[in-house]
């Protein structure tokens, strides 16, 4: 009983420490600038106001265009990256071809290269191709898989029973049909986990969209919020409302895929 009480007490303290910044952000976003300046930061808003959200949704500083662009970027990147990663991981896991393991090791070694190191060469290449400050300039570098995603899927595919794949081949199924009807249905938990990781990574991506775009035409949500913070540095209630709106879709996504995420952790741990 003492151990259980101590465990739940420690988890409760950790939960408070993790959730406190988000709760404070939401609380600040419901205040007026006058309330924020005159009352302590931890004081609740009295009365709460939705003026900051109205300003960001239908006012002169709307975040709707950056939100739409961010959704489009994330959607294209997720579809491209999951498709490319699944095909590459299946090839590295189940196909035999010369130099397979060597190629995989070299590709995996790119994980040790910092993203900042390839930022300028990537920008120069896309600028020479005329893709700077375009939608495709934002999404193309991330569409064709990632070392982490391919490594994660390859390890999962290698753990699947070979007898299932052999049985499908005996029935006349080719590699694409085996991948579609056997491998992918068994890989839903790990695909859901990879989906969440990919969405969160590119939803919060800031540096590359900031470098490759200029102006507000292709401004994503993170860049728009950063610009708002710089422009309205004194109005923290508006900045906190923008931060809350930018975080809300990720919380909804996690709630939807929570069971798949927990299941993937359980299955991976058991294996």
TrEMBL record:
Pfam families: BPD_transp_1 (PF00528). InterPro entries: MetI-like (IPR000515), MetI-like_sf (IPR035906). GO terms for cellular component: plasma membrane. One of its GO terms (biological process) is transmembrane transport. The chain crosses the membrane at residues 67-92, 104-129, 135-157, 178-200, 238-257. It is a multi-pass membrane protein. Keywords: Cell membrane, Membrane, Transmembrane, Transmembrane helix, Transport. It is found in: Cell membrane. Residues 67-257 form the ABC transmembrane type-1 domain. PANTHER family: ABC TRANSPORTER PERMEASE PROTEIN MG189-RELATED, ABC TRANSPORTER PERMEASE PROTEIN MG189-RELATED-RELATED. Belongs to the binding-protein-dependent transport system permease family. This is Carbohydrate ABC transporter membrane protein 2, CUT1 family. It comes from Actinoplanes regularis. The lineage of its organism: Bacteria, Bacillati, Actinomycetota, Actinomycetes, Micromonosporales.
């Amino acid at each position: 009983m003492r151990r259980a009480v101590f465990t739940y007490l420690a988890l409760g303290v950790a939960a408070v420490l993790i959730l406190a910044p988000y709760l404070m952000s939401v609380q600040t976003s419901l205040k007026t600038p006058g309330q924020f300046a005159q009352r302590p930061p931890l004081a609740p808003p009295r009365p709460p106001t939705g003026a900051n959200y109205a300003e960001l949704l239908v006012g002169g500083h709307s975040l709707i265009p950056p939100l739409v662009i961010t959704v489009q970027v994330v959607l294209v990147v997720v579809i491209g990256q999951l498709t490319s990663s699944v095909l590459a991981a299946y090839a590295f896991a189940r196909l035999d071809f010369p130099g397979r393991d060597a190629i995989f090791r070299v590709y995996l070694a790119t994980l040790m290269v910092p993203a900042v190191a390839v930022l300028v060469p990537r920008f120069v290449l896309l600028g020479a191709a005329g893709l700077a400050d375009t939608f495709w300039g934002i999404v193309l570098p991330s569409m064709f898989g990632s070392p982490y995603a391919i490594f994660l899927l390859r390890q999962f595919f290698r753990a699947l029973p070979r007898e299932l794949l052999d049985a499908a081949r005996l029935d006349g199924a080719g590699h694409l049909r085996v991948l579609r009807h056997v491998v992918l249905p068994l890989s839903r938990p790990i695909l859901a986990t990879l989906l969440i990781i990919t969405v969160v990574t590119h939803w919060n991506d800031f540096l590359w969209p900031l470098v490759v775009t200029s102006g507000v035409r292709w401004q994503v949500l993170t860049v728009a919020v950063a610009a708002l913070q710089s422009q309205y540095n004194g109005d923290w209630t508006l900045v906190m409302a923008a931060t809350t709106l930018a975080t809300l879709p990720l919380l909804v996504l996690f709630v939807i895929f929570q069971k798949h995420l927990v299941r993937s952790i359980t299955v991976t741990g058991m294996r």
